[in-house]
User: What shape does this take?
Amino acid sequence: MVIAVLAVQGSFFEHERILDRLGVEYFEIRHKSDLGRDFDGLILPGGESTTMGKLLRELDLFDTLKKKIIDGLPVYGTCAGMILLSSRLSNDDNVYFGTMDMTVRRNAYGRQLGSFETVADVKGIGEVPMVFIRAPYIESIGEKAEALATVNGNIVAARQGNQLVTSFHPELTDNTKVHEYFLSMIK
Ligand code: GLN
Assistant: This one.
């Protein structure tokens, strides 16, 4: 199994550290030529979704990755990665891959609650520590997708077939359970 980690911007290195700990092979997607390699899963890290969206277009990565996701490539989006997969943003006109049937609010916790940590249950995984950094949450979710975790009444993790998203950053904790769940989606 080989995982591709989108590494044009944001916290991709932290995901790679988790994959190292789990003994999983991976490589970084930085250029169009990287898409020539075979991979079984894709991680879209946290960062700045506007910048990542722009770079995906400029580096000519966008169309190939979108097609792979539509064709069933397992993908895990954290935070900005969740924004990239969302079909609607409630406070932004942009749509990026738009492959996951949900409405996401960017920077949903405002300035004061911009960053916080909690522990909550994720369906199919159990309790995990959750680190939120200027995080989005899912305001509403379509019929094709399923909410996996809720914090303060807001959906913070969801799955739609081959697509997994979390508002929070498990890669910034030493808990590997969410990544293990993602890897179990590949096969
Ligand atoms: N606020 C960022 C955005 O809208 C996401 C934050 C993150 O990925 N930590 O792109």
User: Anything to note?
Assistant: The mean pLDDT is 96. The domain at 2-186 is CATH 3.40.50.880 (Rossmann fold).
